[in-house]
Structure prediction request, 228 residues.
Amino acid sequence: GENVEQHPSTLSVQEGDSAVIKCTYSDSASNYFPWYKQELGKGPQLIIDIRSNVGEKKDQRIAVTLNKTAKHFSLHITETQPEDSAVYFCAASDRGGKLIFGQGTELSVKP
Amino acid sequence: SAVISQKPSRDICQRGTSLTIQCQVDSQVTMMFWYRQQPGQSLTLIATANQGSEATYESGFVIDKFPISRPNLTFSTLTVSNMSPEDSSIYLCSVYGTESLKNYGYTFGSGTRLTVV
Prediction:
């Protein structure tokens, strides 16, 4: 089945800097790759997603890139703000439509 | 996107008892899933809730421990049976919409925070 690896597990940046989180997946048939933000005490919230027929997608300060050949995708957050501090999860949708998650990245943005 | 109501939001239960968690969606959805998130960990898929038939369980999860029902396209329940402290986790319902909602991806409820004492 699908396996998703996520790095780094923790990331600390200064406010205004960029943050990059990387994920790799194992199943070449996976075709949907969302990113979730989870704040303390809340459920995961979808922040951006990308499908396998697209190489890059951007939404304001957030962007996701996908390299199907290498089977990896990345989340890029520019001009980080303290409210971006949270745990971020990548995921991949396997052949059966199930979402398999990475291990999570705890992002801390210091003012 | 679909709006999910998950109940209860939290509970403290005695070991050996069972708890049923409800997931209600405001629109018909194609797929419903149940996840477990242990403290400080990622989300692990328990099972896919199938409408009108038995759920499909992932490796390591069995129906006797986590019975699931899905009587229609908007509602599902997960029961955590014969609980032990190791079952203390957040349990999350997730849905994937019908054709009109598919662009919203997979939506999660706010979770049920279960503590077993």
